[in-house]
Write a structure and sequence with these properties.
With 440 residues, this protein is an alpha/beta fold. The protein has two domains: 146 residues, Alpha-Beta Complex (Aspartate Aminotransferase, domain 1); 272 residues, Type I PLP-dependent aspartate aminotransferase-like (Major domain) (Aspartate Aminotransferase, domain 2, 3-Layer(aba) Sandwich). The chain is 38% helix and 16% strand. It contains 14 helices and 15 strands. The strands form three sheets. The chain has a seven-stranded mixed sheet with strand order 4-10-9-8-7-5-6, sandwiched between helices. A four-stranded mixed sheet has the order 1-2-3-13. A four-stranded antiparallel sheet has the order 11-12-15-14. Bound molecules: pyridoxal-5'-phosphate. The site of pyridoxal-5'-phosphate has 16 residues, from helix 4.
Amino acid sequence: MGSVFYRDLDQHYPVAMRARGMYITDDQGKKYLDMSGGAAVSCLGHGHPVVLTAIHLQTDDLAFAHTGFFTNSPQEKLAARLTAKFPESGARAYFTCGGSEANEAAINLAWRYWRAHGQNKKIKIITRRDSYHGNSFATLSLSGNLARRASMDGILLDWPRIAPCYAYRHQQQDESELEYAKRAANELEAVILREGAENIAAFMAETMVGASLGAVAPAKTYFQQIRDICDRHNILLILDEIMCGSGRTGSFFAFEQEDIIPDITTLAKGIGGGYLPLAATIARAKIAATFIDTGKKNPHGHTYMGHANACAAGCAVLDVLDNEELIDKVQREGPALQNGLRDAFGDHPNIGDIRGRGFFQAMELVADKARKTPFENPSQIAAQIKDTAMQYGLICYPGAGRKEDGLSAHILLAPPFIAKPTHFEELIEKLQTVIAEVFQ
Ligand SMILES: Cc1ncc(COP(=O)(O)O)c(C=O)c1O
């Protein structure tokens, strides 16, 4: 291997050479069916001509003009279109290059919002266990994914975290979904009362938990209660939709299905579709208005924020989503994907749960199905699934927690929205081979 500081220096990575539609081809001519869009990124599949043309045209006109000197029309258009999709008028969008930057911008905005209101002590951000918000110092500090935090143990900040809303493992047998949702949400209120609302800036959560737990949707009314608790205690609600947003769950914002409006929302992955690095931090009107009303600047700058080429790619991704009605397709066809998985794997002794929304589905892997017992070494199982799938020409996104934290492994599927029933058939056929080999 070469001089790249690879993610894993022991791993041999095939060289990706060309990608079209649902497939990536390596330098040996081997084709891989992309059933996770990498990590829920390639929502339009690969090489979509509309996006490629938009990038080519934009590059010819203007690739980059520093946003400290200029605005540019792709960022203006993209902001207008994204905020028009936001369920309340007056929102504003801030564009960066990836999820960690978008979340960093979100928390920075929350702090400066409270300072603008003279509440300088409102600093702590409450998050949830088994969540991932990024790999910068602040966003990894906020992340509750203990496996991903492990290498920075003792260095990261440790602010309060509550349990995720994770019915498969946390809902008790004698508890209804609504009772469970109430109990899970009340944990937030207990922590706020313990820490003092005057010290807390925001609560931050993934609307649907992605790579940390595998497509975990909230119980009904959970987020409505969370919204209410945040309002009563004067705490901002930040929803991280880096993975689950941009149409993946069957609505443009995943929170639309929860009937709430967050104060700040972050998007990445799907809004650039993998064509160029792009992320957005969207602040609802009351946050943006605070900066206008108090004459405060927004000094949170990055060299590549609002990049013209990336925003042009983002506009083209939205064109395709809208013109090809792909979000409706995801909503319509998501259940077929889940049913296919249930038919093929529902009775497998090591598949404990099959769950998700839209084109965001996962299967949780367990050692003992009746007891939901985690595997001894979940990360080893996840790695075996990933490697075996690659061997059979399938890209899926396995993940794992730690057994000592009561977590096991899962396989996350986040197919491009263009996937056809034949691709789902190919997925299931390949996954059956992979699972049979790993659990033989
Ligand atoms: C929910 C969530 N938030 C934040 C991030 C960080 O995004 P990035 O890797 O683009 O910095 C990720 C990445 O996987 C994510 O899934």
